[in-house]
Amino acid sequence: MVHISRICFRKYGNFVDNLRLYVRGGTGGMALPRLGGHGGNGGNVWVVATNNMTLKRIKDKYPLKRFVGGSGANSSVRALKGEKGKDEEILAPIGITVTSDDGRILEGELNAEGDRVLVAKGGSGGTPCSSFEPKKGQVKHIRLDLKLIADLGLVGFPNAGKSSLLTALSNATPQIASYAFTTLRPEIGKVAYPDYKQISIADLPGLIEGAHLNRGMGHKFLKHVERTKQLLFVVDVGGFQLASKTPRRSAFEAVQLLTKKELELYKEELVSKPSLLVVNKMDLPEADQMLEELKEQLQNPEEFTNLLPDDMIPKNFITFRHVVPISALTGFGVDHLKSCIRLSLDEYAAMETGATHQKKLQALRQQSHECFRNEDKVSLSSGVGGTRRATS
């Protein structure tokens, strides 16, 4: 039997995915002019990726959010070369991007445990070249921006049944109700299979129309979709209506709206991710008929563009690897969905492995060609030299 565990960010209170910090490199040490001594360099400030860490923990542990490298030691008669100041390390969760206040990426991303980024360099110690005057370290305000790393990201409008789906998978009890916004912060569920393979699923708060324009919590949660390997679209078989004043969307319209007006307009590359479609609430009356209608529309979406407003037609229609009808309420189709998720991710992993192998093979062939080319040049040059010597 497939066993599922749940990792909830509720354990740490409100979810935090962006944190602003003050960082300053340590000041260099004073030199000793009469003996030509050098002051020690100031300590650097690093951001280091580590497991079992959250931005909420950093915020709680360091309320001032200030990180300063140690000062370099002064030069002295006993030690003409002062010791370097102690480096300051900010332990951060995996999946962090270090950015400036305006969102510009400063140094890079931390995608694995132990990855580190230098965010503030310590000042150099006093030397004869600097008239024995030490320098101050770099001063910056940085942001730690977290994008969740997961195998699958649940994408759907509010009340499509994403939380119910994860509940059916995990036997957990997140907040579920008939009103639209029940998931207010991302959560990750882990699915463990009998062969010990684990698959992580990110449950993101429901999008609203205009999320790509940063309406609602738009960019705050769309960004988490970027680092998932595949997307798991969840739609209500009966369609979706956010409020009485907004138009009702059919399941087909909901899929195209998610594709065009939310994912494609936020970042077009997201639409190229491998995707599965979960058609939820199959326990509703006439659900089978609505499902067949949706399948027909998805097989030939170009023939049904007349059902869509012009601004809702995507550049490229998504071809789903699997379309899985389920009822999160009754459990219908959930086991089949688990199998489809595993199959899709295994196929994806095999393709990635093949592509990596092909790239390595091409690189080896290129190196081999270059090696032969260089050998030919050496042989040609040796032959020319020998002929000249024989002639002379």
UniProtKB/TrEMBL annotation:
Highest taxon, organism lineage: Eukaryota
Location, primary (coarse class): nucleus
Protein name (Swiss-Prot/TrEMBL): GTP-binding protein 10
Keyword field contains Ubl conjugation: no
UniProt xrefs under SUPFAM superfamilies: Obg GTP-binding protein N-terminal domain (SSF82051), P-loop containing nucleoside triphosphate hydrolases (SSF52540)
OBG-type G domain residues: 150-346
A Pfam family: GTP1_OBG
Residue ranges occupied by any Obg domain in the UniProt entry: 13-149
Assigned protein family: Belongs to the TRAFAC class OBG-HflX-like GTPase superfamily. OBG GTPase family.
Keywords in alphabetical order: GTP-binding, Nucleotide-binding, Nucleus, Ribosome biogenesis
Gene3D superfamilies: GTP1/OBG domain (2.70.210.12), P-loop containing nucleotide triphosphate hydrolases (3.40.50.300)
CDD domains: Obg (cd01898)
Gene Ontology MF terms: GTP binding; GTPase activity; magnesium ion binding
GO biological process: ribosome biogenesis
Lineage of the species this protein comes from: Eukaryota, Metazoa, Chordata, Craniata, Vertebrata
Localisation per UniProt entry: Nucleus, Nucleolus
A GO cellular component entry from the record: nucleolus
Organism: Poecilia formosa
